[in-house]
User: Fold these one by one.
Assistant:
Number 1:
Amino acid sequence: MKVAVVGATGMVGEVMLKVLEERNFPVTELIPVASERSVGKTISYKGTSYKVVGLETAVSMRPDIALFSAGGGTSLEWAPKFAEAGTTVVDNSSAWRMDPTKKLVVPEINAHVLTKDDKIIANPNCSTIQMVMALNPLHKAYKMKRVVVSTYQSVSGTGIKAVRQLENEIAGIEGEMAYPYPIGKNALPHCDVFEENGYTKEEMKLAREPQKIMNDSTFSVSATAVRIPTAGGHSESVNVEFENDFDLSDVRKLLSETPGVVVQDNTATNSYPMPIYAHNKDEVFVGRIRRDETQPNTLNMWIVADNLRKGAATNTIQIAEYLVENNLV
Ligand SMILES: NC(=O)c1ccc[n+]([C@@H]2O[C@H](COP(=O)([O-])OP(=O)(O)OC[C@H]3O[C@@H](n4cnc5c(N)ncnc54)[C@H](OP(=O)(O)O)[C@@H]3O)[C@@H](O)[C@H]2O)c1
């Protein structure tokens, strides 16, 4: 496979290169792509150095697959150009996610919807991926009615500029700001931009994407997204109301039998998911599983995952693997 990584110098791009290597994805030629600022820089992959190229050059090299993580504008403009050249694009930005002609895929849930004709495939939002990984098996068993989620999101979800802002604040250095306020010792109820309805774009992604991935619009999601000064992963407090009642031990069993999900839930040993331990892992960790005692058939849980791994790079590469394994590319 000739594989282009668009945004190879960014936070997600770097993890993509790592995950491609770790999973031994069948790369015969790697094409690292970034903005004009980075053209000519070298990237190391499996001990070999590759020169970063621009988008125009990358299209002309006709890769089999292009893994995009270079922002929505780049995806909107360039994904169709790659697709026209015969490349299958898996895109990490929000550009194509809600486009009804594009598939939005978490492989464990809906890879089966993919066909050879899908030339631009969307990777869901990082906070959505970890949430639906835990919700999907429970929805199948008990049928969800309503989800209320509050997120505690890592600065790595905003990109390199935000990680630098936090590092600068910790070191007492004045530097470029990725957020409108300091993030160290702070919590910003503001992820991505505000929409007209008072919610942020991130909150609306959490509200809309799960229905598309799970191909079911019978449940609703209400979200509050908050940025906190962590770097290893996103955490989510999730309250789910089901149509049918559940047994807590069955919930734990169902989740622990779900591929890609790890249950860490033992209050006696202070065992629960945390971003510092989810960091650099591909799994989604679920804990603090308990009944909401204020209304029937309702569950509370705490979900943590590395947003750069399962929330971005790993999910993207799992999609690419599915395409290769099923001769769809
Ligand atoms: N961070 C996350 O957890 C996460 C999760 C899911 C999805 N995403 C999405 O992934 C994308 C990248 O996020 P990130 O966190 O990796 O950001 P980042 O660290 O800021 O990296 C951005 C990357 O895009 C490249 N780029 C920027 N403008 C470009 C242009 N005009 N043409 C070509 N390349 C360009 C940059 O190249 P230069 O180095 O040359 O500037 C860099 O490689 C975004 O769309 C984001 O929404 C991020």
Note: The chain has a mean pLDDT of 97.
Number 2:
Amino acid sequence: MTVAVTYYSFIMMTRREFLRQATVAGVVVVATSFQLTHASKTATGAASTPRRAAVVQTVLGPLDVSELGFTLTHEHIGGWTPDFSRKWPESFGGKAGFVARAVDKLKAVRAEGVSTVVDLSPYDVERDVRFLEGVSRKSGMHIVACTGQHLFPPESMIARSTEQLTEFFIKEIEQGIDGTGIKAGVIKVATRSDGVTAFEEKALRAAARASKATGVPIETHTHARRRGGEKQVAIFEAEGVSPTRVSLGHSDDTDDIDYLAGLLKRGYTLGMDHINRGLKSGSQLPWQKRAECIKQLVDAGFVDKIFLSNDSEFSSSLLPEEARDEREKTNPDGMLFNTRKLIPYLKQIGVSDREIHAITIDNPRRFFSRS
Ligand SMILES: [Zn+2]
């Protein structure tokens, strides 16, 4: 199928409108057609011309990274897969109720200034890209879906080689997920504790190789209290992936500044996405303390290496209804915790508006530019 777009109508459209229309029309817009080439200077002053594709794949198609805006980098919107539906058809008020709830929540989050949500649920946590596509369209929220691996590999994946996992991740990035043509815009990988299992090592290596092959960045789930990020980056470094392409999630689960600054100095981004977990009474690390840790890292010069998110879950499968209700009682703001509580508190303790802008808008835009 082709779409006639006259030069006049093209130049009258924003790139975003063009991409949206092209996507709706079923046209595959090839990322490289929007690659920007811009000269930069290396440290020695020699000119170099790295190519950066200024688009990120969302569930509605490619989006210019300048349109990402305020981005929550680690969330779980969830899904309603056929498998889940067969087992729990009445759960969460059935599919229609589940979808309506997700749309309402995303609209509310959009209304308060968030324009992009990165959903870090790969195939092993009931990822459902058709669901994400529908709620993105209905809510106006940009959603980036992921490929990769969380903590629940079925035997059929455990048996695969690193090469096969790499091929699978690349397929989801370049061709699409579950035969839909909806492409992954990020690679998620996870390790359960301070160690790395044999399968997790294969998944980490595959993530590194897929990232190098496609330019798509990596976001991880780490056990920060046990310095889990260090084990992950040892594997990434052995595979030669640039630290600028990796964000280590749940890093605010520790206040060990040596550990955090050590990873930042090596060039990694830290996902500070569990701040709301510090709302729980008796929490080892209260949320204000986690926020103060962010301020310390900003003051130490790492403002361009921090992501904020909420790791919220209104997913159908990650949590049963009671657990979700319990979590909502502890954090009634849900995905709005950052904008309603955390950011005002960060400002109160001296983080500037410019620094907040860098963390929430500039850092994701740079990270999601494929290089
Ligand atoms: Zn998560």
Note: The pocket of zinc ion is lined by residues 74, 76, 120, 221, 311 (CB under 6 Å).
